[in-house]
Amino acid sequence: MTAQLPxxxxxxxxxxxxxxxxxxxDSDWDDLPWFGSAQTDGPLLPLRASRxxxxxxxxxxDFSGDEWRDLRPTVMVSELRDSFLSGRRGVAGxxxxxxxxxRIINMSHLMYYGKTERNCDCxxxxxxxxxxxxGSVCVVLWNSVCVRWYRxxxxxxxxxxxxxxxxxxxxxxxxxxxxSVNSRNPxxxxxxxxxxxxxxxxxPPAAVYNFYTSKELMDRPHGDVCDIIGLVTFSxxxxxxxxxxGRGEELLEYLWLRLEDGSSxxxxxxxxxxxxxxxxxxxxxPLSVVVCTRLKLMKDLTDSTFYLTNTTYTQVYCTGSGHxxxxxxxxLRPVKGFLQWLRRQDDxxxxxxxxxxxFFMFPPPPVSLETFxxxxxxxxxxxxxxxxxxxxxxxxxxxxxxxxxxxxxxxVTYSRMGEEDRCLFWTDRAPSLPSTPxxxxxxxxxxxxxxxxxxxxxxxxxxxxxxRKSSPRATLQPEHINKTVVLFEASMEFLENSSSVxxxxxxxxxxxxxxxxxxxxxxxxxxxxxxxxxxxxDHAHKEQQAxxxxxxxxxxxxxxxxxxxxxxxxxxxxxxxxxxxxLSDGVTVDAIFLPHYNQSSDTHTHSNTWTSxxxxxxxxxxxxxxxxxxxxxxxxxxxxxxxxxxxxxxHLGGATTELILSRAFTxxx
Length: 669
Description:
Blueprint: E1 2-4, E2 12-14, E3 19-20, E4 23-24, E5 34-35, E6 52-53, H1 77-85, E7 95-96, E8 100-107, E9 111-112, E10 124-132, E11 135-142, H2 143-149, E12 158-162, E13 164-168, E14 177-181, E15 189-193, H3 214-217, E16 225-235, E17 239-242, E18 251-260, E19 268-273, H4 278-281, E20 289-299, E21 306-318, H5 333-343, H6 347-352, E22 355-356, H7 369-375, H8 385-394, E23 400-416, E24 423-428, H9 450-454, E25 459-464, E26 474-475, H10 485-492, H11 505-513, E27 535-536, H12 542-549, E28 574-582, E29 588-593, H13 610-616, H14 628-633, E30 643-653, E31 656-666
Parallel strand pairs: 11-14, 16-22, 19-21
Antiparallel strand pairs: 1-2, 3-4, 5-6, 7-13, 8-10, 8-12, 9-10, 10-11, 12-15, 13-14, 16-18, 16-20, 17-18, 18-19, 20-21, 22-27, 23-24, 23-28, 23-30, 24-25, 26-29, 28-29, 30-31
């Protein structure tokens, strides 16, 4: 107390500060329980204004002070925000002991922040978005609290929080706060409450969902956040990509899903990253009903292609997990409408189009080289062959990356899975290039076409015995390490035009007799991997198929009960292999090509020539596809062609690296 000397009537005193049970109240007049009716103009001077304050310091019967506040009525989100922003002690930087009753509306995936230089036993955190009737706030679970409580909580739960800290939210607006919940300094108290046990005045509102059908998604803007429900008809294999957060160290696991909801013919395509729900992700097989919340719409502005992918708060609920019956979304009109459509579906019809695993790429690359290069702006450019080889060796297990090289096709092979020892193939013989393999004497199929007969001395169509290989085809030819594209182009001008055919059969035979090898060696190609081709969904063996497309891979799943090799039913079993020679340094790469299995629902019309097939990545959907023998015979169209090749690479384990040719664009000479 400090003395003040008034003009009359002697001295009075002003309350300067007071300590109550160890907590300082430095001149915070509004927090003191003043009483008295006198009003004065100007600043309040308690004694002059005839005001009094009672401090319950010596009452041993009634509780008072911060130690008892967590048993008093709860604090609201709006109170915490206002108190923190106004800088009131006890909230701003202090431990809040008053109870906060909130409902969980969103949960993030687990976030790992461990580093070698940090000493932390549980370097995890998770974001939990909660609300009460006054507003919403983000709760951060840290370290051992995260490990203990993350699996115990789910959206829709009502929780009670005590002993937490209020902070400014990281990297947000200055007026945004977050609640920090840790295991020490202070040790937080969390409990899950039954809805019936919460007083109506403190009962938080129910969670809000924004469900959209596949038809409605077509009209939604890019970046919109939405919820979906659908029947899974395609479940892809697990793959990983490098994080784009700047560190480039973390590998993020994902899979592709396709869902139907009956509102349109276009399925809902979802690129689903891990949501810290491993037990649910293992149930994401065809014929499952899946709800995904808080997905972000990714839309291509040039066409109607769109897909959905994760946000921080994405959650998944799947049949077989027991969640559907507990979640409040089951009462919503969009969900009820979907269930009515689902009850009208026939199991056999859905099974006929259900697919699991295999190579999948979405959205499909553009069919124009100019558009493709524009879309790749900011990404690494063309690789030399030896650089591609080095990048393939750096891939981690199930890591997926896309590469571009300039190359020429030197061989095309048609094979069937498990029958690679018998194949059709064409090889380019270019005698003016010393690095080109020697030409082979033709061994035509049983019904050679006129085109095959006319060109047999220039480009060869063969059927041969082929040994099996398991390692990726990427070999370096040392004599061409220093070759440049300019020299390659110069040598290409000396090659005979593939479209010109001599009418003199005797001259052809004479030329052929002087240049072919009488016993052609079989082509050295790699059998397609089990994980590359999509399987028809087998509900009776769904667990085995799920393991085959999971991160465990097929090595642990390719045996049946008798110890023999398991044989799944594949959607396609035949495939093409294109041998590509890099124009820069002569490295050769074998890439699988699947033009007859169009997963992207592309409906472009083209002429089914090799140029158009490679540009679109698939056969035309509006004309009959050419037979394999005809397509191999047409491979002469690839001679002397300089191509920009887009290769999708995925390390499948061991010595197996999958290389898929998704696009090849012709370069003008």
